[in-house]
Amino acid sequence: MGGYAAVVLAGGAARRMGGADKPTLTVAGQSMLTRVLAAVHDADPRVVVGRVPPDLPVQVHSTREDPPGSGPVAATAAGLALVPDDVSYTALLAADLPLLTGEAIDVLRLTAESAPMQGAVYRDAEGRRQMLCGVWRTAALRQALAGVLEERGSLDGASVRELMNHLRVAEVSWRRPGPPPWFDCDTDDDLRTAEEWAR
């Protein structure tokens, strides 16, 4: 596989967790953001959209959506602005996926590179696409952002679903033992579940 970039969305209000700085919360002794970045250790560049803690143990590029708090699609655009045009593929990931692994990313990358689609995401057991756990053709992601902008006049407040309406996606099932790599932590209970799985 050739090189790829990673854009990690680390904003969001975490309302169901009392407004906590969710990416900095720890699972098995490491922040969720650190764990996601470890899964894409071979990506170049690695871009974090949101606050980067001063003690983050790895080097990343950082940026913010404009205006701050304008949502995941605006954040995606801000992150992609730091990805060079010659990078063919970009992983687009939420920062609250503490069980994500390099193997899970490799499966998405292989699918994205071999399928006649514009990207690949995981599909859970209920058939839902995990849209912030995917790998995309970088050019297609840029075109989709342009399409949303043309439709709405602004990316402010646009939903990931609106972005995905402009993309053809391959859906991938996770068939290996262990927890699903797309498991995200939206509540304190989710965090406890992730901690148990990560032991």
From TrEMBL:
<keyword id="KW-0808">Transferase</keyword>
<protein>
    <submittedName>
        <fullName>NTP transferase domain-containing protein</fullName>
    </submittedName>
</protein>
<dbReference type="InterPro" id="IPR029044">
    <property type="entry name" value="Nucleotide-diphossugar_trans"/>
</dbReference>
<dbReference type="Pfam" id="PF12804">
    <property type="entry name" value="NTP_transf_3"/>
</dbReference>
<dbReference type="GO" id="GO:0016740">
    <property type="term" value="F:transferase activity"/>
</dbReference>
<dbReference type="InterPro" id="IPR025877">
    <property type="entry name" value="MobA-like_NTP_Trfase"/>
</dbReference>
<feature type="domain" description="MobA-like NTP transferase">
    <location>
        <begin position="6"/>
        <end position="153"/>
    </location>
</feature>
